[in-house]
Amino acid sequence: MATTAAAAAMIQPPDSLLRYNPPVLVSRRTEKRSPGARPLKGTPPPPPAPSGPVPPPPRTPAAAAVDSAKQPQEILNTILPPREWEEENRRWVQEVSSAPSTRLDVVHLQEQLDLRLQQRQARETGICPVRRELYSQCFDELIRETTINCAERGLLLLRVRDEIQMTIAAYQMLYESSIAFGMRKALQAEQGKSDMEKRIAELEEEKRELEKQVSEEKARCEAIEKRETERRQIEEKKHTEEVQFLKQTNQQLKAQLESIIAPNK
User: Fold this and answer.
1) Rounded Cα gap, residues 264 and 247, in angstroms
2) Band of the pLDDT at 58, cuts 50, 70, 90?
């Protein structure tokens, strides 16, 4: 009665689609005594251990029935480990239920799955941890129901579940590594972009300097050409004037020579 009242007063663990037995109080956390401590006063010492082999007690039909009832529960505990938690210095254990399920239980499981998917707003497509958790609980419940009827079939479903979980974990690791790779590439591209922008700014500045130098050189060439043209025109004019002067002087000298030669005749 005390254990039942304590179970009713405790905080229930998170609800699951997997069916569990009522929680059982296993132990209370108290002061631990060392193995070599002396027994308390009034406590009789433990009987000495027998030196020879002890024959096993005879098995009765009731004990065999209990063992046969325990075997499915042990298999279930191996496949689906019990839940354990501590509360107020008390340790609770909740094992998976070994009660068989009917067709109505399967229909109810499907309804509960749809209801909780809607209540927890699980996404219908894409990656959704909530949907994955609920479907994992549903699959565990199906494994539990199958194991009760056929342990071999339940163990085979356990292998299938573990393979699926391992495949999903591999895909998740691959997804996380691809995300990390993409982030590294994005950071490298961002860093390369800033370097390229800096290089482009330097090249544009260099281009402006070169254009400025080209403009200065063009202006210098135009000034030189203008100056040379003016100098050439001046020299041509001077040369023309000198030629005209020399022609005029030649005509005068020729006329004087003819005038000198003509009277002598």
Assistant:
1) 26
2) low
How far is the CA of 68 from the CAs of 72, 105, 136, 158, 173, in angstroms? 8, 24, 29, 22, 43
| CA-based torsion, 41, 44, 50, 54: positive or negative | negative
Per-residue pLDDT tens for 201-218? 999 999 999 999 999 999
Q: What is the pLDDT of residues 183-206, one digit of tens each?
A: 998 888 888 888 888 899 999 999
Confidence label for 258 from pLDDT (cuts 50, 70 and 90)? confident
pTM for the complete prediction?
A: 0.54
Q: In the chain, which ranges are E strands?
A: 24-28, 83-87, 90-94
Q: Read out DSSP for 139-188?
A: HHHHHHHHHHH-HHHHHHHHHHHHHHHHHHHHHHHHHHHHHHHHHHHHHH
For residue 96, give both structure tokens.
Answer: 């998976």
Strands 83-87 and 24-28: unpaired
Report how far residue 3's alpha carbon sits from residue 22's, in angstroms, rounded to the nearest whole number: 11
Distance from C-alpha of 130 to C-alpha of 218, rounded to nearest angstrom: 75
Rounded CA-CA distance 83/144 in Å is 15
